[in-house]
Write a structure and sequence with these properties.
This protein is an all-alpha fold. The chain is built from nine helices and no strands. It has one domain.
């Protein structure tokens, strides 16, 4: 296997975390992979984009959230020297926050998004349109359909949202519309 850059490694970890998330598979691994990708991207950003502006804003955002809180679950999954019997809450929100921030940094560095990252943003734009869908433009083509989808998905289960993510990823990679999976992955 050929050597890869840290940026490529972080991108691969992030894409893998998104695929696992969509498949409702192994939430501790999703969290660990997404946070590892985040940390690499966060650390290499000032080297690859030495402007300092975005990194400073991101650091401020995570300080507001609380670095300890942001890192707590990931650290619990990596270390057990002081709390070998501790219980861990591998809730999907821990993965979703880490993935979302990591995608933002990756895009700031590269100006690109992989199909996995694009599919994740499709799902997030339905879950939180004010954050992920950008400015609302009622005159834009497809706006009414998008708002109908948002309204329809308000009561969707996590499993249904992840099925939507799998379908979006399939479409982005193949150009085909995926048939609804009658046997979605099990937890």
């Amino acid at each position: 296997m050929a050597e890869i850059t840290k940026l490529e490694a972080a991108q691969q970890q992030l894409d893998c975390a998104i695929r696992l998330l969509f498949n409702l598979d192994n939430m501790p691994s999703v969290i660990t992979l997404s946070r590892a990708a985040f940390r690499v991207l966060f650390d290499i950003y000032p080297v690859l984009r030495p402007d300092g502006v975005y990194r400073s804003r991101l650091d401020d955002l995570i300080k507001q959230m609380g670095w300890v809180k942001f890192s707590a679950v990931a650290n619990q999954l990596k270390h057990a020297d002081n709390d070998a019997d501790a219980m861990i809450d591998p809730h999907p929100i821990h993965a979703i926050v880490g993935i979302g921030i990591a995608i933002t940094i990756y895009h700031q560095i590269t100006g690109a998004r992989t199909p996995e990252m694009q599919a994740f943003e499709v799902v997030m734009s339905v879950i939180a349109p004010d954050v992920f869908a950008g400015p609302h433009d009622p005159e834009a083509e497809g706006y009414d359909d998008f708002m109908k989808a948002v309204e329809h998905m308000k009561n969707a289960t996590h499993e249904q949202l992840m099925e939507m993510g799998r379908g979006a990823l399939h479409h982005l990679k193949t150009g085909e519309i995926a048939a609804r999976d009658p046997h979605p992955p099990r937890r």
